[in-house]
Amino acid sequence: MQSVNRLPPPLLFLMSLWDAWQSLTREGEGLLRGQHGLSLREFIVLSYVGGGDYQPSALAEALGVPRYDISRTLAGLQAAELLSRSPDPADARRSHLQLTEAGEVRRAAAEATVLKFVAGRLQALESSPELPDALSLSRALFSVAGSSESLSPHLPPKENLK
């Protein structure tokens, strides 16, 4: 195996991103399932819905997943009474998603678990001046992905960061 220092930067980036994703999702998913009975996808859906008014199709687009996948996730969250749908008064073919009271409680508890877990992992960034801070790294990843950071309901706007 080649030394990491000899890899072309784009390959090194992909490998490090893969390693970070695999590590964070494996451990994070275990915490979410064990403590809150949620998958990572279910937690992310609850976070998006809790952050604003979403229709199922817009949610699928925001998360970059097929509609049928979101439909299955939403059905499970509805069955668990964590999420509800209400018809769009202007268009009966559409519905709006809202968290139930139980959904908001579960989302908030799961968020606290995720924040504590990820904060522990991000500690390395704060203790190494040569590394970017977590918010700068997040913005850089949005940029690399070509996605809009405005899709994330909880990321503060750039103008609020001074």
From TrEMBL:
It holds the Pfam family MarR_2. It comes from the Bacteria. SUPFAM superfamilies: Winged helix' DNA-binding domain. InterPro entries: HTH_MarR-typ, MarR/SlyA-like, WH-like_DNA-bd_sf, WH_DNA-bd_sf. GO terms for biological process: response to stress. Transmembrane segments: none annotated. PROSITE patterns: HTH_MARR_2. Residues 1-143 form the HTH marR-type domain. This is Regulatory protein MarR. It comes from Deinococcus proteolyticus (strain ATCC 35074 / DSM 20540 / JCM 6276 / NBRC 101906 / NCIMB 13154 / VKM Ac-1939 / CCM 2703 / MRP).
